């Protein structure tokens, strides 16, 4: 069997830190195991253009593994060329880099290590909400510059206590965010999701479902995005929807960059319609040097909490998704059933309810 893995290059850090398992250097810890079983294992970060390793090796690979942090985009075009492809494995959570409809048609399974990094991301969301609301980044930058002018940062700093926080998507991550916010004494938690939570789960996190998206955003001081990217969520947060946000609301998106319209978000931050935007996901990854989200600022000079895509790839998360990837491969090789929650696309059909109402 030929297994192709598209991972990110870790450089010196990956040589020094073997727990950086999601890198080209450390190969998810799979090489000696796969090779001992007689399988061929190709690992590369080269994924763009006709001469990339992804394009070259997908033609006869049976299994393709990739991470959302450096996604090998498995387009319909590539699926047509991938004559032997049976399984796409996401080492992590979020399989939008695969053309899922094409995978359904070609009976290619799409599996992911569901739940492997949801706590990692939920923690990052809570941190991002706090750093925006409390105006942390400009305050720290001031200290590094050698300045000290409390009023400059305090004039745009607030408490999270008493605020309304809403999540778009109340699945594993969205729900964990609300759980973690309960002790902050927030005023109310809202959620927007076509899959309603059970009544006792709603009660446990003080959550109220709002079914109209415009009405939902108009009530939130903070909106956090925690739904997958699919046809129904691409550009969901656009110039029109942003007009319905409360003036000066904060927006945190660790789900996928393309759920938000890049330029509309930058314009909203610049005008102060949004007081800030934070997250780790970008519409193109790696993000180009001149991507407007790198440097956008609100009228008072703050409001940017952007980082590279790493919230779900802490060392703890990498241990879990590397282990889960191996389990998925073991199941596949021995004909054992996969864990139901790990199956995004089974043979010829969607098995998840999270990628749109189908
Ligand atoms: P999940 O499947 O447990 O939950 C997703 C929820 O979103 C579901 O309840 C689903 O019904 C809801 N949803 C789908 N479409 C919606 C829509 N149009 N409007 C409102 N709600 C909608 O998934 P999860 O484990 O919570 O992960 C969510 C997403 O977070 C992943 O798909 C991935 O894109 C992203 N993620 C990012 C990182 C990172 O490192 N930044 C890591 C893991 C996951």
Major sheet size, sense and barrel closure: 7 strands, mixed
Molecules bound to protein? nicotinamide-adenine-dinucleotide
Choose one word for the global shape.
Answer: globular
Strand percentage lies at 15-25%
CATH fold group of the largest domain: Rossmann fold
As for the number of domains, it is 2
* Arithmetic mean pLDDT: 98
- For the record, what CATH class of the largest domain applies? Alpha Beta
Through-space gap between termini? 33 Å
Q: How many beta-strand runs?
A: 14
Assigned CATH architecture of the largest domain:
3-Layer(aba) Sandwich
| CATH homologous superfamily designation of the largest domain | NAD(P)-binding Rossmann-like Domain
The helix count comes to 15
**Helix/strand-derived class?**
alpha/beta
Helix content: 25-40%
Query: Regions with pLDDT < 50 over 5+ consecutive residues?
Result: none
* Topology pattern, helix = H, strand = E: EHHEHEHEHEHHHEHEHEHEHEHEHEHEE
**Side-by-side strand order of the widest sheet:** 2-1-3-4-5-13-14
Which value, in Å, is the CA radius of gyration?
21 Å
């Amino acid at each position: 069997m030929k297994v192709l893995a598209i991972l990110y290059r870790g450089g010196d850090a990956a040589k020094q830190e073997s727990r950086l398992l999601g890198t080209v250097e450390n190969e998810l810890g799979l090489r000696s195991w796969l090779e001992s079983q007689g399988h061929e294992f190709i690992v590369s970060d080269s994924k763009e253009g006709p001469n990339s390793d992804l394009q070259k090796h997908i033609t006869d690979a049976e299994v393709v593994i990739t991470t959302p942090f450096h996604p090998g985009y498995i387009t319909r075009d590539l699926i047509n060329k991938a004559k032997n492809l049976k399984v796409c494995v996401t080492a992590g959570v979020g399989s939008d880099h695969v053309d899922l409809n094409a995978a359904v048609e070609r009976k290619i399974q799409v599996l992911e290590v569901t739940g492997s990094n949801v706590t990692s991301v939920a923690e990052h969301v809570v941190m991002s909400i706090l750093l925006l609301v409390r105006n942390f980044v400009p305050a720290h930058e001031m200290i590094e510059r050698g300045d000290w002018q409390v009023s400059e940062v305090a004039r745009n700093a607030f408490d999270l206590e008493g605020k309304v926080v809403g999540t778009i998507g109340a699945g594993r991550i969205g729900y964990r965010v609300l759980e973690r916010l309960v002790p902050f004494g927030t005023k109310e938690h809202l959620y927007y999701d076509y899959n309603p939570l059970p009544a006792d789960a709603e009660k446990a996190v003080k959550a109220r479902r709002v079914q109209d998206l415009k009405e939902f955003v108009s009530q939130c001081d903070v909106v956090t995005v925690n739904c997958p990217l699919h046809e129904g969520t691409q550009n969901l947060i656009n110039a029109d929807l942003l007009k319905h946000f409360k003036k000066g609301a904060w927006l945190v998106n660790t789900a996928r960059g393309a759920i938000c319209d890049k330029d509309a978000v930058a314009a909203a931050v610049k005008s102060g319609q949004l007081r800030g935007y934070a997250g780790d996901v970008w519409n193109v990854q790696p993000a180009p040097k001149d991507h407007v989200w790198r440097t956008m600022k609100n009228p008072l000079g703050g409001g940017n909490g952007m980082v590279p895509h790493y919230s779900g790839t802490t060392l703890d998360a990498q241990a879990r998704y590397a282990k889960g990837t191996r389990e998925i491969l073991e199941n596949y090789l021995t004909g054992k059933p996969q864990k139901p929650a790990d199956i995004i696309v089974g043979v010829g059909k969607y098995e998840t309810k999270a990628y749109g109402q189908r």
